[in-house]
What we know:
By secondary structure, this protein is an alpha+beta fold. It has helices at 22-40, 54-64, 82-92, 102-109, 111-120, 167-181, 232-236, 241-244, 256-273, 307-314, 319-333, 337-343, 347-359, 379-386, 397-408, 459-473, 490-498, and strands spanning 4-10, 44-50, 68-71, 128-131, 145-149, 163-164, 185-189, 195-203, 206-209, 213-215, 248-249, 278-285, 291-297, 369-373, 391-392, 395-396, 415-423, 426-437, 442-450, 478-484, 502-507, 517-523. It contains 17 helices and 22 strands.
Amino acid sequence: MSPRVLVLFNEPTLPPDHPDADSEHDILYTADTVARILQQAGIAVERLGLRDDPAALLKGLKASNPDAVFNLYEGLAQWGNTEAYVAGLLELLRVPFTGSPTQPLLMCRSKPLTKQLLAGAGLPTAPFFVVEDGPVPRCRIKWPVIVKPGREDASVGIDQASVVTGQKQLEDRVEYIRATYGPSVLVERFVRGREFNVALMERDGELTTLPYSEILFVPPDDRPDLWPIVSFDAKWRPGTLEFTATPAKNPADVTPELHERLATLSKKAFELVGCRDYARVDFRLDEEGEPFILEVNPNPCISPLAGLAAGLESAKIPYAEFIVGLVQQALRRGPTPHLAESLGRSFVASEAALEATIAQPEQSPASICRVRSARPSDLPGVLDLLANEASVAGEPTAALVARIRVVLDRKDPVARRCIVLTRRGSIVGVALSALLDGAQGAATLEALFVRPDQRLQGHGRRLVRAVEESAAANGGRLLLAHASSGPTEAPPRQFLQSVGFRSIGELAEYYRDGYARLSFGRALTPARPATPAEELPAEVVALPAP
């Protein structure tokens, strides 16, 4: 019998026109993704969206009777401590759940308390003081300082006015934060250097760090005064000036010495506050390159588009494996024996069922998928695949389809290749590539698309691999790809970097919307001269020569 998992998440509560509303809606996409991955692993899944009524949680637990809860509950926007309170209820009921327990969730919700704990343990954090009620004291920290709500996360309450350079500014900003978010208010030294996100995960009984992500600060030429901070706009509002000015780079370029220093500090912080399963520790470097811990996040965002997922990609850990692994760890922890008996089931048996389910070869997407050259008869399937997409790779879908038609009709004067990925006979992915210059060995990946419900299963990687095999077999030595610098193109850029492409150039204001065309390249391994098609991996079929 397969295990039963309840995916628990917070329903948005802010009205759509509220300035912080964007921070609530990302969780819905994450919950959908997690539920789909667990279902594909053979796990029985139910979902429960929760607001502020604990009775709804108790009723949902009783109705679903889960073996474990996948805890995505982030708390209410108006009352962030509810994140910890829900975890506390799960602990009280002895229900196994993913992520951190109550203690770190409650502690790290308070930025001042976390900083006091870090400082007391001798871990580096910037000088600070806290303002509760009453007048704002004279600032004795070197200007500039940054003012933050003491009990908010996800950059709520952070904007360009958060960094202040004088006492009057400080007093005005503190009053604004108190009036908007309530006490307490954190005032800390503004550390101006590089910023890193270090994601950690427990795996096979060992705490490890994932490849680091760096937030790059690239203000436009006409706004050199922009403070280098991850504001609410930078985090949640694509298309805004600050979102565009703060791209993430993963993996970050760090020296071995800095890598080791950040790994040591982040692990100490993880263990100090009592995190579990996964967490993220954020750092800033000062002018001398010394790291300071900004905050510890016990249950960071695990959306496929978030920094932790990018770290998984860089570490070559499948996202689905991470998600299923969290359930495995929760089942291993299990409840107390009396609860298992009262619920009438064995959690040991449930864990074994999960292990058996994900170990079955037929459940592996690779075993039921095939990547091959497109045939003329594939055109209806390709049209159906792209039917609901307005654009792919930054160009109108109609233009891409027109090129694919020419390729399938064998009338393309360019050495283009169309590759399809099929799952149980249906086309779920397509890639279009071209050999630009046979003499120089340059090929380009013109477009790649995977059906939305088939993403996060390695299909994109398989298509890229097939394109590489084809280009290398025809003398290609370099594979190119392009993407817009616009905020909506962040996922394609992240994907290209996750499969080994590196940034090699930029053409400013290339697209009509004013965004630049970013170029990426990946060196190809020369094909072995005598490799027949049947010796290629089972899911890859060699393409015909032009």
